[in-house]
Design a protein that fits this description.
164 residues, mainly alpha, three-stranded antiparallel β-sheet, 6 helices, 3 strands, 10% strand, globular
Length: 164
């Protein structure tokens, strides 16, 4: 997988705007797509066009995927994953490496001092946002972000068949 994905097309921006119910902004890549070709995850610049620092590099946009993440969060899975990290040193180490990889990829686009050392989703110490962690896992592939992988494995959503 290519962490930054393909550059967005005008059609991708239109689809993402429909998915988000607002104009898409500052998207530089589409790293994960549905089997139908629609964006599932976007890569956003670390500094938005208006100057705002934006640490969330990978943003889950496909509505069914975001609903799946929300269902896991509502079911309390973030606390379960946090406990699992506390009990599994190997998974915690992988989560730290995922955090470092995330920052390295973001800084390949731009270095923003205000968000230096900050990734997303609570990495490397907490589990805070499954939307971000699932988006990261979908973008970089399995085996990089253990929490994103766990969440994807537990959801009833997937890239195939199309759920757009």
């Amino acid at each position: 997988m290519r962490p930054l994905g393909d550059p967005p097309t005008a059609h991708d921006i239109e689809v993402v705007s429909e998915q988000l119910w607002r104009p898409a902004r500052d998207i530089v890549g589409i790293p994960a797509r549905c089997v139908c070709g629609n964006p599932v995850v976007v890569v956003t610049t670390p500094r938005l066009g208006d100057g705002t620092p934006f640490p969330t590099l990978y943003y889950l946009t496909q509505p069914e995927a975001t609903r799946a993440a929300s269902r896991l969060e509502a079911a309390g899975r973030m606390a379960d994953y946090q406990e699992r990290l506390a009990e599994d040193a190997e998974a915690a180490k992988a989560y730290l490496l995922a955090h470092e990889s995330y920052i390295h990829t973001r800084e390949s686009i731009d270095v923003v001092d205000e968000i230096a050392g900050i990734s997303a989703g609570g990495m490397p110490d907490r589990v805070k946002c499954l939307h971000s962690l699932m988006g990261h896992a979908l973008s970089v592939g399995p085996g990089i972000n253990p929490v994103g992988d766990w969440a994807l494995a537990e959801t009833d959503w997937g890239l195939d068949p199309c759920q757009c």
